Amino acid sequence: MLHLSAAVDQSSVYDAASYVDLARLAEHGVLDFVTLDDTFARPGPDALSVLSRVAPATSRVGLVPTVTTTHTEPFHVQAAVATLDWVSRGRAGWRLDVSTTEGEARLFGRRHAAPAEELWREAGEVADVAARLWDSWEDDAEIRDVPTGRFIDRDKLHHVDFEGSGFSVRGPSIVPRPPQGHPVRVVDATEGHARRTAARYADVALVRVANAAQAGAVRDQLRKDAGRFGRSPDELRVLVSLLADLGDGEHAAEPGHGGGGPRQTAQGPLYRGGPVDLAELIASWHAAGAVDGFHLTPAAPRRDLERLVNGTVPLLQHRGLFRTFYPGSTLREHLGLARPANQYANAGDAS
Q1: By the number of CB atoms within 10 A of the CB, which of 154, 191, 267, 306 ranks highest?
Q2: Per-residue pLDDT tens digits for 93-140
């Protein structure tokens, strides 16, 4: 199955309605999910809060905000992501990122900037403890027994007692287990330090590469690394991230931008051409087994997302490469990922 997703980033836009419109457009195109970037390095709306507003205005498309694991409290982050999963009825994801600059560190005043290797190791610990906290409530922990006044079966709440390199968490969570069990974890695995974290913890790995051969090599390595961490490689989806400038309409792609591959830029691989050639590029890379799908960042948010949804997607659907409707209601179902079993269920209290 081919997977497609898109960014709904908009520079200096704070009006939630604009994000709702783009998410609805992506949903019209049956895309797996949309992402909204966030960082402490520049002004902008809080991505998780914005997508929490988008959630009740949409019904199927997955919602994946970036939430940094640096300078934030893991307990609060996992609870916020779990809440988004509840608000969206099982459509939440979480794009993990780190904050590497001294300027970002000064915003909090807790510690100095740290090397990327250390920060991504910490991000892995946060991903780990988040999964444990999501599992700290068994699915049937809420009993709501009015006659006895019992709301929760305390035997089905679990302490996680996690000790990381820079934090510790006892648990349990304050939010019941999310509808998906674990909201989908997404990591940009382009850089080496992030790649290890992605292989171990991510459900979706994004890679910024400029040709199918590179994409295939990275995908193969990520799947091998996932196996070394005791995971099934089939639990990991690898999507290529491309900037997409579809402003040329139906004209042929610029030299080097069509089926031959995008052009590498300082912002990442850039495809510039029409929706038809983009469909051909996507189809050819997918047929080669190089990718599980694509994550596209429109150069002009509304214009290029419209051309993706109304031009490229129908062409891929006509070729039988992409779905014409959502077969399920959760983001995990869109991605073909199973709902994880609870690691504490039937195992006794971890405390």
Answers
A1: 306
A2: 999 999 999 999 999 998 999 999 999 999 999 999 999 999 999 998
Q: Bridge partners of 93?
A: 184
d(CA 34, CA 57): 14
- The SS3 assignment for 4 reads strand
Q: How many CB atoms lie within 10 A of CB 45?
A: 17
HEC assignment per residue over 272-294: ECCHHHHHHHHHHHHHCCCCCEE
Helix (H, G, I), strand (E, B) or coil at 143: strand
Query: What number of residues does the chain have?
Result: 351
Sign of CA dihedral 132, 134, 136, 139: negative
> Mind giving me the DSSP string for 295-321?
EEEESSHHHHHHHIIIIIHHHHHHTT-
The 10s digit of each residue's pLDDT in 264-276 is: 888 899 999 889 9
Q: Dihedral angle at the C-alpha atoms of 289, 292, 295, 296, nearest 10 degrees? A: 40
At residue 345, φ and ψ (nearest 5 deg) are -60, 135
The tokens describing 261, both together, are 């591959």
Peptide bond before residue 65 is cis, with ω within 30 degrees of 0: no
Closest CA to 309 of 301, 180, 174: 301
Judged by DSSP in three states, 244 sits in strand
